[in-house]
Write a structure and sequence with these properties.
Layout lengths: L1 H4 L18 H6 L9 H10 L5 H12 L1 H4 L6 H10 L4 H17 L3 H20 L1 H10 L8 H10 L3 E3 L11 E6 L2 E5 L10 H9 L8 H8 L3 H9 L10 H9 L29 H11 L13 H6 L22 E6 L8 E7 L2 E7 L3
Parallel strand pairs: 1-3
Antiparallel strand pairs: 2-3, 4-5, 5-6
């Protein structure tokens, strides 16, 4: 099709015998330069050029859809090719036509799918180009989608100049949202949906009680009636920094919270005085990053591989952004997080891997040998 469209190869429409309509294939394949590209065209060729009945054409459609798993399409080959030859088509063309139809078992799709996919790709690309903040927010709110995880979506957005803000009980909605960050600019605020284990109903309670900023964990629990387990999940996700607590101190404070109601028997208990305040040591950034990935599946503080860079550099491992400065055929060592691992059925055992470190991504091709 591409050769014909570019004029490298002439466009031809084989004709049947003199007793049949010479333009029957031109009517079906005119828009695609005589090459069947879509499933609908394959079905029409079978019905018009090989006189398949509607039932036989439906069998062909099913065979195309299950070619890889069942291998049933071969049973229809003799029937279609012989009928086309009987109607006066060149045997070579008839065989080539059916072989093209067989190819749909690997990649074929209806024209409506092709059109809708092209439209979606164009619109998505346009939004990502002109509004990367909107694109990032929408993708995060659509998880789980497969392929790229939230950490990679956020990393790509930051590389394109989008500001990302951590989840926080005083600012985050349930969904990821956009917040003004300057003249006409917006930052992405990570939503509470990103915090692992926090139910939407609990997040709604927080948002409904947020008429005034929360001041401490006791105030948060008293006003929202959120259970202690959810409170600890929010603390573990470092989502309470706006009340002056980092992750470790928040975890300590939320451990004292209980869901049991106050009992009347102890309503007039003697005041034991204020609870002792403990100043806990600061959590190292590397521990923060581990906790971020455990609770949010992403981190805005650092990339996990960055903490290993000094050791890896001594061992000869290179960062991903060094690839642009290397010559073809040069041997190097890389290390990183495995983002994507694909082994397509048509790749003859080749595995495609995407590695990510703190400087970018590297695409690897691992041969079967």
């Amino acid at each position: 099709y591409l050769r014909r469209r570019s004029g490298v190869e002439p466009v031809e429409f084989p004709s049947p015998g003199p007793d049949h309509d010479p333009d029957v294939l031109r009517n079906i394949l005119g828009r695609t330069n005589g090459v069947p590209i879509f499933q609908e065209q394959a079905m029409k060729i079978a019905m018009v050029a090989a006189e398949f009945s509607p039932i036989e054409a439906n069998d062909l459609r099913k065979a195309m859809a299950t070619f890889r798993s069942r291998g049933t399409i071969g049973a229809l080959e003799d029937k279609m090719v012989s009928r086309m030859i009987r109607r006066g088509y060149n045997p070579e063309f008839a065989a080539r036509c059916f072989n093209q139809i067989k190819g749909f078992g690997d990649y074929g799709f209806p024209e409506s799918h092709a059109a809708s996919f092209a439209l979606l790709v164009y619109i998505s690309s346009w939004i990502k180009c002109h509004y990367p903040d909107v694109f990032c927010t929408a993708l995060l709110n659509s998880q789980p989608m497969g392929f790229y995880a939230p950490a990679q979506i956020v990393r790509d957005a930051r590389e394109h100049g989008v500001g990302i803000r951590e989840p926080d009980i005083n600012y985050s909605e349930w969904d990821n949202t956009l917040e003004p960050s300057g003249a006409g600019a917006f930052a992405v605020r990570i939503g509470l949906r990103q915090v692992d284990g926090v139910p939407q109903v609990m997040a709604q309670r927080i948002m409904q009680a947020r008429h005034d900023p929360f001041t401490d964990v006791q105030d948060l629990k008293a006003r929202t009636k959120v259970d202690a387990g959810t409170m600890r999940k929010l603390a573990a996700a470092d989502a309470v920094r706006s009340i002056g607590l980092d992750r470790r101190q928040a975890l300590w404070d939320t451990r004292a919270l209980r869901d049991a109601p106050d009992l009347p028997l102890f309503a007039d208990r003697r005041d034991e005085g204020p609870e002792a305040v403990f100043t806990l040591p600061q959590m190292p950034v590397c521990e923060h990053v581990v906790a971020d990935y455990q609770t949010l599946r992403l981190s805005l503080k650092a990339h996990p591989v960055s903490f290993l860079r000094t050791s890896m550099a001594r061992q000869g491992y290179r960062p991903a952004n060094d690839l642009t400065r290397m010559r073809n055929g040069q041997s190097i060592s890389l290390a990183g997080l495995v983002l994507v691992r694909q082994r397509p059925g048509s790749a003859k055992g080749v595995c495609f891997i995407t590695l990510e470190d703190e400087t970018g991504v590297a695409n690897l091709v691992v041969w079967s040998k």
